[in-house]
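Intended use. Records like the one below are meant for learning the mapping from a protein sequence to its folded structure. Do not use them to infer anything beyond what is encoded.
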Amino acid sequence: MDKLCFFITVAVLSLNCLAYNLPTDQEALVAFKTRIISDPNNILVKNWSTNTSICNWIGVSCSRKWQRVTALDFSNFGFSGTIAPHLGNLTFLSYLNINSNNFTGIIPLELSHLRRLKEINMGSNNFIGVVPSWLGAIPELQHILLDDNSFSGSIPKSLLHNNSKLQTLQLAYNFLNGNIPQEICNLSALEYLSLRYNMFTGSIPFGIFNMSSLRELGLTNIACQVGSQTIFVMVSRN
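Structure written out for the chain above:
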């Protein structure tokens, strides 16, 4: 009898958690929707209805077991707006792709709460500010794609510390400056690195060219120091 009561209690608690988490995910997505100022294909108007499950909304994927949001893919939707910090409440999210839209502003700090995130693709938008250093603290992160934006400042070293799972780092076509950190050479799983078309100065760490894991390396059109001369590097390895 005691065991039966225990299992009933656990089941009720699980249902209560599920009942709480689904509205939390919905609230996060509704907040995201309110920050969209242009939706040329009327995707949100036609499809994102609060009368239907968020798991049926275009661009949203959920886990089968818990019906929690695990992936968002809004690539090439033509959205304009800013990113709602509420997306940081999607604690089951592992994949975030908003590539090729017209998002502006900075990437909210609240996204650092996405501890299950494996891939973040915000390429080909109009984001500004610095590359978020907190990306280096997301334990499961494997792919960072922030190319073709307006990020400035230097590459934060904390992005590269203890990031043994990182396979992709795409920072091309921004306004990044300063030195290319030596710590990049410590990314033992890195396969794709693109830093081309930025404003780096100083020397390129020679260790980059000896990284055995690299399959593609893009350093095209980077001014760097070699000896006492500044040259433009034209390197692309694939």
